From TrEMBL:
Similarity section: Belongs to the enoyl-CoA hydratase/isomerase family.
Primary enzyme class: lyase
InterPro entries recorded: ClpP/crotonase-like_dom_sf (IPR029045), Enoyl-CoA_hydra/iso (IPR001753), Enoyl-CoA_hydra_C (IPR014748)
Name of the protein in question: Enoyl-CoA hydratase
PANTHER family given in the database record: ENOYL-COA HYDRATASE, MITOCHONDRIAL, ENOYL-COA HYDRATASE-RELATED
């Protein structure tokens, strides 16, 4: 879209692809980029033809964090009223699955953007870190919360307090990354995972994502209750009939999102 300055937006079949595009600043997340990313994700959320979204960066950097030059001279009231952290709300509220395709640096806000995605596919070159402490601040786009839930307190404290980076292998072992692939396979792997997700019943996909998210936010018995009701509700869809009849008839299901 010509209206976007900091991202590239395209569709590949039923997949929406957003590529962060401030290569000279290693895709530093300034207010404009965060706003444009929110617009693009919201548009994909509203587009019935889209079933999943991939968020990619560049080869050297997925994103090297919030834009330090933009933040450097800001006062408390500047950042309080600008509320860049809150500006991610539109992305997080999107119910369609988001896949992050991470190559190179995913630091600070860039790591936090990956943590806001449902599936994280990393190239072997990926490096994750929360270096905010080295700047005299702390993570501000959810990192102390989402990273801790993703990889546990010991690893999260290590990364957030020392500012060190972890490589793709450690990130996968720790549970931050879903899969690690060779760099030349990264975008294909992310796009084909997204296409696969988009090929399934939309209602089942949204319910599955929502139920896993509930696991992060509630206790076990409440979560299991939520899952059971969502599971039962899917029996009201035509896609459930189609999926099961197709299995019995040994053919591929044709989901119609009904
Ligand atoms: N903000 C603004 N500009 C950035 C940036 C950032 N986060 N990260 C990199 N850049 C810019 C550099 O200033 C440089 O610009 P110039 O060419 O105009 O000098 C350009 O991108 C290339 O970067 P480097 O020359 O530094 O590249 P390098 O290969 O030597 O180092 C790096 C790469 C280790 C990632 C280094 O750029 C770096 O440490 N970046 C900052 C990482 C960081 O601290 N991120 C956290 C930001 S705070 C945050 O995110 C807060 C939050 O949670 C909300």
């Amino acid at each position: 879209d010509a209206a976007y300055e900091t991202i590239l937006v395209e569709t590949r079949g039923a997949v929406g692809l957003v590529t962060l595009n401030r290569p000279k600043a290693l895709n530093a997340l300034n207010a404009r980029l965060i706003g444009e990313l929110g617009d693009a994700i919201q548009a994909f959320e509203a587009d019935e033809a889209i079933g999943a979204v991939v968020i990619a960066g560049g080869e050297k950097a997925f994103a090297a964090g919030a834009d330090i030059t933009e933040m450097a001279s800001k006062s408390f009231t500047d950042v309080y009223f600008a509320d860049l952290g809150g500006a991610w709300g539109r992305l997080v509220a999107c119910r369609k699955p988001r896949i992050a395709a991470v190559s190179g640096y995913a630091l600070g806000g860039g790591a936090e953007l990956a943590q806001m995605c449902d599936v994280v596919i990393a190239s072997e070159t990926a490096k994750f870190g929360q270096p905010e402490i080295t700047l005299g601040i702390i993570p501000g786009f959810g990192g102390t919360q989402r990273l801790t839930r993703a990889i546990g307190k010991a690893k999260a404290m290590d990364l957030i307090l020392t500012g060190r980076m972890m490589d793709a292998e450690e990130a996968e072992r720790s549970g931050l990354v879903s899969r690690v692939v060779p760099g030349d396979r990264l975008l294909d792997e992310a796009l084909s995972a997204a296409a696969k997700i988009a090929s399934f019943s939309r209602a089942a996909v949204l319910a599955a994502k929502e139920a896993v998210e509930v696991a992060h936010e509630t206790g076990l018995s409440e979560g299991v209750r939520f899952e059971r009701r969502a599971f039962q509700a899917l029996f009201a869809t035509e896609d459930q009939k189609e999926g099961m009849v197709a299995f019995v008839e040994k053919r591929k299901p044709a989901f119609r999102n009904r």
